Amino acid sequence: MQKKLTTIDEKIYNGLKAVIISTAPIIFLMIFCSAALPHPHVFIAQRIKIVFDDQGLAGINIHWTFDDMFTSMIAGDYDKNQNKVLEKNEVALIKKEAFSYLFDQNYFTFIKIGKKSFDVKFIQNFSAELHNNKLIYKFFIPCHVTATSNLKHVCIASYDPSYYSVIFFANNGPVSLDNAESFNVKTAIKEDKSTLIYYGQINPWALFLDFSTKQ
Question: Where are the domains of the chain?
């Protein structure tokens, strides 16, 4: 036999019903927005080598190691003879079809010298290889900053503005120096608090480089 609701029970029931009805559109909107927001499909472990010349900073060597899925996709599309070696003509096609379009996004590398942005207009020495079943891209970004007795400050953040790809610093050896013996150099990997990405929600992780001539 069904129990008859008391006046208090009815008030509680009606109150809960009102809350559910009033919040349902909000819950639906949250679920819809969550599904609609972009999310990463490609994951890239990055290593950076800072290259110096006699004058100061000469540029940045970038080393990207891709996740298994993207590796399989590129190997399947471009390793035509399936020998697990990317030959010269295959690398040239990868550069043309699966890399050069990043020009419009600064090659996912956003550099600030002091407080001024540095546009990455071109890269050099692009290569692609398969190593231990991982796809690796390597390329060099020329970026000349003359060293002085005063510290020069350079910030290098790597991210995909569309959030289709996620770039993170590798756990082992994320940063190295080349030909830096003539300079005082400090590096640190930390969040860039001056920059917000992904709908203004996240500060990107960046390499902070300070250098000067030795006294």
Answer: 1-37, 42-213
pLDDT value for 33: 45
pLDDT band at 198 (very low <50, low <70, confident <90, very high): confident
Task: Read off the pTM.
Answer: 0.81
CA nearest to 13, candidates 4, 25, 2, 1:
4
Q: Which residues pair with 145 in a beta bridge?
A: 57
Question: d(Cα 82, Cα 18) in Å, to the nearest integer?
Answer: 62
Question: How high is the mean pLDDT of the chain?
Answer: 87
For strands 205-213 and 124-131, give the pairing: unpaired
Q: Token digits for 60?
A: 């940045």
Write down the architecture of domain 42-213 according to CATH: Distorted Sandwich (2.70)
Q: For residue 163, what pLDDT is reported?
A: 87
Q: For 191, list phi and psi in degrees, rounded to 5.
A: -70, 140
Q: Yes or no: say if 214 and 207 are a contact pair by the CB < 8 Å rule.
A: no
